[in-house]
Amino acid sequence: MTRLVEEDGLVARVPVELIYEPDDRTGWGPYLSAADALKLDEVRQALRRRDIVGAAQHGDVFEMTRVS
User: Does residue 10 surpass a pLDDT of 90?
Assistant: First the structure.
C-alpha cells in the first residue's frame, strides 16, 4: 500500500505496510508499524525543507500544478 504525503505543492508517494491483527478487539486496526510512521515523518520533514533528494529516498516525489 502507499501513502501520500503533501507539503507546499510537493507530494511523495511512500510505500508502507498495513498491519492487520485478526483478533483485534480494540477496533484500532489496521495500523502502521513504528518504522513506517517514522518514515512518513521523515518524508514530510524533507518536503518542508524542499529536500527532494531526501524525500525521494523513501518514495516517488511529484510537484503539483494547479490546472484551473
Answer: yes
